[in-house]
Amino acid sequence: MKKKIIALILLLCIPLLSFADELASPSITINTQLEIPKEVKIRSDARTTMYVNEQITLYAELSGFEEISVTYQWQYDKRDGNGFVNIPNATNATYSFPATDETINCDYRVIVYY
Question: pTM higher than 0.85, yes or no?
Answer without folding.
Answer: no
